[in-house]
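Annex B, item 7. Sequence and structure tokens for protein A, then protein B.
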Amino acid sequence: MNTTKIALITGGSRGLGKDMALSIVKKGLNVVISYNSNETAALDTVNQITMLGGKCIALHLDTTKVATFNTFKKQLTQELNDQWNTNKIDYLINNAGFGHNASIAETTEDGFDDLLNVHLKGVFFLTQTLLDTLNDGGGIINISSGLARFSFPGYAAYAVMKGAIEVFTRYLAKELGERKIKANTIAPGAINTDFNKERFEQAPQIVDMIASLTALGRVGESDDIGSVVAFLCTNDARWVNGQRIEASGGMFV
């Protein structure tokens, strides 16, 4: 039986998810990453982890399609058995997502529903589907945003979803406490990844503005978040539960 713990990261092929995977592997865990459309990026992440001496597999998952979650679960448990002689994971990191910038007046119903399906509905029902695949004593880490605390015009719909995720996380912590499963939220501030790359390139003054609003005087980088997620996947975080941990360098403190 495999004794090394295993973390599943949705949206783990690039950006924050990729750095989470790399940081978690450095803590001695094995990793499963999911990807939606970019298989090439996912395989590149697998190769990088292999070069670090870790073990990683990549599986396709569209988190907007709840009806496919049971099929994904079957594929996941089969791969877990084939690769590590187990049918359980220890940590679930709900990271898959996308950005959306539109004022309240300009937000369309379709745009709202797209955000809802990925950032809230998908997270809720994927977590539900995988509850009996999660080892007792493990953990769930949901990714929120600093935008659930402070406000920037144009991010209302996105921030609403992230605020809901923070509530969901507290309920997970309460309901799963009997199984000693911890549930926490990480809320990144503005991070320099491909998530924000286009906007930063179009308006480089935004980077300076964000840095000026941040106590540590810079925009965040991927490993500023990945290392915090990796910490929550260790026994050092055994008494951290039901918490919202903001990793924003001190924006608007």
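Protein B:
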Amino acid sequence: MLELILGIIVLVALISLIFVVYHNKFKISIIKMEEAENNIDLLLQKKLDLLKRAKPIVIKELKLDFFLDAIENDNIDELNHFELNELLKKSFNEFFQILDENEKLFKSEALVRIIEELNSNEVELVAAVKFYNDTVVTFNQLIVSFPSNIIRLFFRYKKKEFYNHEKREIYEILKDN
């Protein structure tokens, strides 16, 4: 009888330990994703500010009527970080396309400083997105694998979205294996 009670206690302790370990893995992933999201939001805001600073210089130098109008949209504050990232990526590419076509813009020291800051910001943003996506892969693997998928049910964790399709495809391949 004592052996049965001891066995039950050991089994409950083992199940509790597994529960705690996997719950902590979820919590660590969530904290990392939130940290990455905060960094991404800051970097996206900086990118937006830099593009807004560059816009009047380019308009003045090239005497343009329209340039980077998407970044002046009143609804830009309502975009989530995925949508803002896509909008800024398009605006960033439009800006550098104009730069490639107009060498005279590089005569402006202010614009050259903005370009340097944009390039530095872009490197940091790519790193932050990579960190976020890597953490999402780990989190989503926990969602679908045993025994962590049982813990997911208790806490109603849902799969997270990636910043780009490349990571989504990698995750789908890993999930199928």
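Comment on protein B: The CA atoms of residues 74 and 90 lie 17 Å apart.
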